Amino acid sequence: MSEFPAAAGHRHGVELAIADAVGTVTIASDHGALPTETKTALRDALNRVADDPAVRAVVLTGAGSTFCVGQELKEHAAALSADATAAWDTLGDHYIPIVTALATMPKPVIAAVNGTAAGAGAAIAFACDLRLVSDDAVFYLAFAGIALSVDSGLSWTLPRLVGFGRATDLLLRARPVSATDALSLGLATEVVPASELASRAAMVAAELAAGPTVAFGATKRALAYSAGHGLADALDMEAGMQTLAGTTEDHADAVRAFLEKRPPVFRGR
Considering the entire predicted model, what is its pTM? Predict the structure, then answer.
């Protein structure tokens, strides 16, 4: 269960607002960094919107000119000095649950990348379903630049977005990726003028929140499953997910709507 204190509020550099079936989670910590208290609040806020049936789409964004720059390095340096092995407990305590919540949430998740997304911050964006990216945003896959391997799901998400060869190049050479390059590589779903990002994210989120929520969740599960399984297993998974979606009120109403020549109205159940 999430420990985020309210359906709308602020906690340790994370803001949560819920309106019109859309949950908006904003990383508003200093410089978009993730000290322990912010990582905890982000994890809890994501779990809260994942568990809330009234939330049918989620927007994850940052504040100011920064989306998220990952680990707060002063805190990390102190943790390394205290115990270099224990310093990495944060992966299991925070980053893995954060990425898992985003990737497995049974509803669509939009990353509205409003500025710099670096390290784990970039990985968090890549774990979302769609990435609407400000035209002045930059991705930094900077792990190798500080003598680290990858974490926060990058070894899984990045090759699936850009292919194995490009993922290897981006991670080993650790150079900045502009919004334009992110679009051509497949990291960005859409690039939007900075002044229009919030409104565009709200528009796409509203569209998804009005959609067939169970079917969206089933589609996400089928796609994730297929990444690690062969055709026969994927077909079986599809059959299960199709049965799940096909027994919802939304599907029944959509069939009636088609026969009655009217638009369907999806209620997310």
Answer: 0.93
